[in-house]
Write a structure and sequence with these properties.
The protein has 420 residues and is an all-alpha fold. The protein has one domain. The chain is built from 22 helices and no strands. The longest helix has 27 residues. The model has no long low-confidence stretch (mean pLDDT 86).
């Protein structure tokens, strides 16, 4: 346990230092875990969340094909003209769209669709993309917290406890609205003086005809039809008994077929460094889970509260948030679910409020660091493809303090409505 934890910390230090590419560092850590016998190869493969990887690959293919239609440039010009070239107004609008879309779809799918539009907007207005990307990352993770399907931890909790889509909307929805409003205000205050658009670029945007950017109308119709069917599948996946990965891969396959594109050409454009980073991370965290490190931390933390509902709820919220900022939240939530269930069975505690503490902490905590949530890593990968590097330290400097604000708001919410 100690040796594996030390290796994990060393790999994490490499990722933070950025002296080694994060994908190489994560894969090296995974290989070392297997070579040292900390986890069997079979268990290492089981630790990889292929549902997440399948969802990512499928949606990346759909977005890549759709990109060739000019749709994202069209939407960028349309949005820029609607906002009259005012960047902060655009940032707030895109954040709201992202938050709502993440609640109805999932946060990874949403950023894959919205980020290309954002890059087109920032390129057109000649402004820095980083503030916009940070706002979208936060909005995607916050919006995903509101519903059953918005973020993987919610799906896991809902499945284990039998909570419905509307249960999450009623219990997480109110605080998510407040958190998103406060977060948008913070981004506005931070960047309002830094993001300025020169008048000539504003006039240039207002003079553009967005229809001129549509390159292939037939492909556009095909892409939108397949994308619409895929999104409908995400919404109905519970009734269809199909995982999001199956629907995403199915949509990608259908679009490649009807668009008659060469698979090798499209698959070259998939963000493979992001995919393999996740593989390495899943194996490393899976090793810690297999050795009982995560269970030990969670059990010792819960033991400290001695069954007090208020203290337990606050501990779960903050422990989930801090842990989810630095490790993948899926295995952490998987470890916490049986612990919370056992508390109800052994101590006779009403654990209902604890599920919302776990959900809010795990989902919102992902905004703390670059590797805290899938959406963060995906956006960073897309930015790197366009020559705009988002460093771990730069993300941490902005993300971690704002994440703490969201957890403070959640603390007040849980205290007032659930834990007193």
């Amino acid at each position: 346990m100690v040796a594996a934890s030390v290796i994990f910390i060393l790999v994490y230090a490499l990722i933070v230092s950025e002296k080694v590419h994060r994908t190489i560092a994560a894969l090296a850590g995974a290989v070392i875990m297997i070579l040292f016998g900390f986890i069997l190869q079979e268990k290492a493969i089981e630790a990889i969340d292929f549902n997440t990887l399948g969802l990512l690959i499928g949606m990346m293919v759909i977005v890549e094909i759709t990109k060739h239609t000019g749709l994202f440039e069209y939407m960028a010009v349309k949005a820029a003209k609607w906002a009259k070239g005012e960047p902060m107004k655009l940032m707030l609008a895109l954040s709201l769209i992202t938050a709502v879309a993440s609640a109805l779809l999932d946060n990874v799918t949403t950023v894959l669709l919205v980020v290309p539009v954002t890059f087109s907007i920032t390129h057109t207005l000649r402004v820095k993309a980083f503030p916009f990307l940070m706002a979208l990352i936060f909005a995607s993770n916050i919006g995903g917290t509101a519903t059953l399907i918005g973020d993987p931890p919610n799906i896991m909790i809902g499945s284990a406890v039998g909570l419905s889509f509307m249960d999450f909307v009623k219990n997480n929805g109110p605080v998510v609205i407040v958190v998103q409003a406060v977060t948008s205000l913070i981004f506005y205050l931070i960047y309002r003086k830094d993001i300025k658009v020169e008048e000539e670029y504003r006039k240039e945007v207002m003079a553009m005809n967005e229809l001129d950017f549509i390159k292939d109308t037939r492909l556009l119709y095909k892409s939108l039809t397949v994308l619409g069917l895929t999104i409908l599948g995400f919404i109905l996946h519970g009734f269809l008994h199909l995982e999001p990965a199956t629907l995403a891969i199915g949509g990608a396959t259908l679009l490649m077929a009807v668009a008659r594109v060469k698979p090798e050409k499209i698959l070259k454009e998939v963000e493979w460094p992001v995919i393999f980073f996740f593989i390495g991370l899943f194996v490393m965290v899976g090793t810690l889970e297999e050795l009982g490190v995560l269970k030990l931390i969670a059990a010792e933390a819960v033991k400290l509260t001695e069954g007090n509902l208020l203290l337990t709820g606050m501990l779960i919220l903050w422990l989930s948030a801090i842990a989810s900022a630095f490790i993948d939240n899926i295995p952490f939530v998987a470890t916490m679910i049986p612990l919370i269930q056992n508390m109800g069975q052994i101590g006779g505690v009403d654990v209902g409020p604890l599920w919302w503490a776990l959900s809010l902490g795990a989902c919102l905590g992902g905004n703390g660091t670059l590797v805290g949530a899938s959406a963060n890593v995906v956006v960073a990968g897309m930015a790197e493809e366009r020559g705009q590097h988002i460093s771990f330290k730069k993300f941490l400097k902005v993300g971690f303090p704002i994440m703490l604000v969201s957890i403070v708001i959640s603390t007040v919410y849980l205290y007032l409505f659930y834990l007193t």
